[in-house]
Amino acid sequence: MAENGHQLPDWEEAASPKRKSIFSKFSSHSKATVIKEEEASEEPTTSNTRLMPNRFVPRWVKSSRKHMLISIGVVILILVLILGLGLGLGLSHNPGPGYGACGFENKPSEAICAVAHALWDSLSTSTNPNENPLCGKMIRITRYNEAVGGNRSVDVKIVDKCMGCKPTDLDLSIAMFTALADEGLGRVVGSWAWLS
C-alpha cells in the first residue's frame, strides 16, 4: 500500500518556526546559545553568541524577570516617596527664623504651628494675610507618646498656613513636634482643640 504523502518543493519549508515573544531575545542571554549542527564546525562569531553588543544592553535587561520587576518596583517606590516629600506630605513644620503668613517672626524653638490652607482661607476676611482672624489663636494638641507611655499635650499659637496639609492637619515647629513624638516619625496622629 502506497503512502499518501506529498513531497514539498525545495523552496518551501515543512513548518514555520515557532514565534517567540519580544522578551525571549533578552532571556536568551542567560541561556547557552544553541548552534546548529552544520554551524558547529565553524568558529562561533559574536553574532552567534549574543544578540546585541553589551554596550547597548543595560545590565538589568539581562537579569531574570523577577529581578527586573523588583527593580521597577523599587524605582516606583522611590518616586512615590520623592513626590510625597516634594508635595509637603509627612513633614513637620520648621518655620526657622523668618516671618510666617501672620507677619510674626518665627523661631524653631517657639510653641507655634501652621494650620491647613483650606481652614486658613475659609476664615480669611482680608487680602492681607496678617489680618486673618486665626493669627495668634491658641490650640492645644494632645497625643499618646509611645516612648513615655502616656499622653502629652502642648499649647501652640497659630502663626502661619500650611500649603501641603489636609483640612484638619497642623504643622508644628520642631520643638513642639519633638515634645509629642520622635522626629523620625515625620507625621503622626493626634487630637487638637481651640483654646481661645
TrEMBL record:
SUPFAM superfamilies: Barwin-like endoglucanases. PANTHER family: PTHR31836, SRCR DOMAIN-CONTAINING PROTEIN-RELATED. Keywords: Membrane, Signal, Transmembrane, Transmembrane helix. Residues 119-190 form the Barwin domain. This is Barwin domain-containing protein. One of its GO terms (biological process) is defense response to bacterium. It comes from Rhynchosporium agropyri. It comes from the Eukaryota. The chain crosses the membrane at residues 69-91. InterPro entries: Barwin_dom, Expansin_CellWall, RlpA-like_sf. CDD domains: DPBB_RlpA_EXP_N-like (cd22191).
